[in-house]
Amino acid sequence: MILSGGTGTRLWPLSREGYPKQFWPLLGSETMLQQTAGRAMGAEFAPAVVVCNEAHRFLVAEQLREAKVEGARILLEPAGRNSAPAIAAAALLVAEQSPEDVIWVKAADAAITDVPALHAALARAVVAAQAGRIVTFGMRPTAPETGYGYIEPGAELAEAPGVMRLERFIEKPDAAKAADLLADGRHLWNSGMFVATAATLLAELERFAPEVVRSVTAAIAEAKRDLDFVRLGAQAFGAAPAISIDYAVMEKTSLAAVVPADIGWSDLGSWAALWEVGEKDGRGNVVSGPVSLVDAEGCLVRSEGILTGVVGLKDVVIVTTDDAVLAMPRDRAQDVKRLVDQLRRSGQKEATEHRRVYRPWGNYEGLIQGDRFQVKRIQVRPGQKLSLQKHFHRAEHWVVVHGTAIVHRDGENIMLRENESIYLPLGCVHRMENPGMIPLTLIEVQVGSYLGEDDIVRLEDTYGRT
């Protein structure tokens, strides 16, 4: 089970609500979601259950398809309610057919460098889970990290060699406490991964958080199933308490256990964490994209397209996207959330939205905006099409620059090839689709008195939007 509901605020400006960090290739060519799914592929694993925000459903489906992950079921949360309701929903879905199946719960956005060691730890955890335990993975600390919770392990379980009784959780400590926990050599980082049977998870949730089970059971009963998507009932799921599985169950249950593991794990919860695991040059710099450094040391510099130059800086983070730049000392990485909160309060759309906006059919990107006009670049994936729609306040011009389009305009079908264009007057009913085998790219020029995205009246939509 993959939890893909996070927004990764501390990795702003790359990670934002509209396109959070699990959908980005932070380490290597695959996205974090794809890497996470790839660790559970093979004959010993059942198809994944992915829990995600409904707005991200097509992103999840497309990235799983690209990674050749087959048979996944995608559970759509109508609202984020933290991890306990999400895990309850997946456990109920699994329990419909096989309640004794072992579920491996993991976040979509963690980095793990030693997958064979991970699988060895998982094998030990499965033994304990089949004996009725709920097992978490405790990562061996490498630094006095204040951004993680800690676990105190107890005695080894007789029924599961290599798995310890979990004595207690310790909240994220201050620097002095973190140094003490590292020095004693006993405490482990809490990875947020869990292993248990569906039946055990549901029984302990029913015991300690019955209101979660009650709400989520109703949401499953009201769920609508569409292809690989399971849309949970919105009203029932929204009534579930917003609570983590740690607070709801793990801190209360007598069945908690921990398997210590050294697997090169990081939750990539900050730019400093990304620097820690990144490939460094001879002066300790981690760079990505078009970056040029002179006398820089210990820096993380990432650019998503604009040439970024750094001279004479030490231990800083600089991240450049097409609409925002972040610069800070590396040891202030946890404060990015404060910046994002400030941007939200001031109404800056860059706090949550990228200039490139992803849709089920592809994406669009704003290029120029002026008085009564704006220009966008639109990309439509092969075989996909936009909704049948009309606008009350704007007319549009479309120019194809790559691929082939079929445009439906007031009942007429028109094929456009590269360097051909069409005019869509205000109020006309129109739709565009890509009938080809390659992506379709076009430039859209909008002219009108109001150019907001809410000036769209959808008359028909392949993706169930209104």
Automatic annotation (TrEMBL):
It holds the Pfam family MannoseP_isomer. Residues 1-281 form the Nucleotidyl transferase domain. Residues 293-343 form the MannoseP isomerase/GMP-like beta-helix domain. Its EC number is 2.7.7.13. It catalyses: alpha-D-mannose 1-phosphate + GTP + H(+) = GDP-alpha-D-mannose + diphosphate. The keyword Nucleotide-binding applies. It comes from the Bacteria. InterPro entries: GMPP_N, Man1P_GuaTrfase/Man6P_Isoase, Man6P_isomerase-2_C, ManC/GMP-like_b-helix, Mannose-6P_isomerase_type2, NTP_transferase_dom, Nucleotide-diphossugar_trans, RmlC-like_jellyroll. Residues 347-461 form the Mannose-6-phosphate isomerase type II C-terminal domain. The lineage of its organism: Bacteria, Pseudomonadati, Pseudomonadota, Alphaproteobacteria, Acetobacterales. Belongs to the mannose-6-phosphate isomerase type 2 family. This is mannose-1-phosphate guanylyltransferase. Keywords: GTP-binding, Isomerase, Nucleotide-binding, Nucleotidyltransferase, Transferase. GO terms for molecular function: mannose-1-phosphate guanylyltransferase (GTP) activity; mannose-6-phosphate isomerase activity.
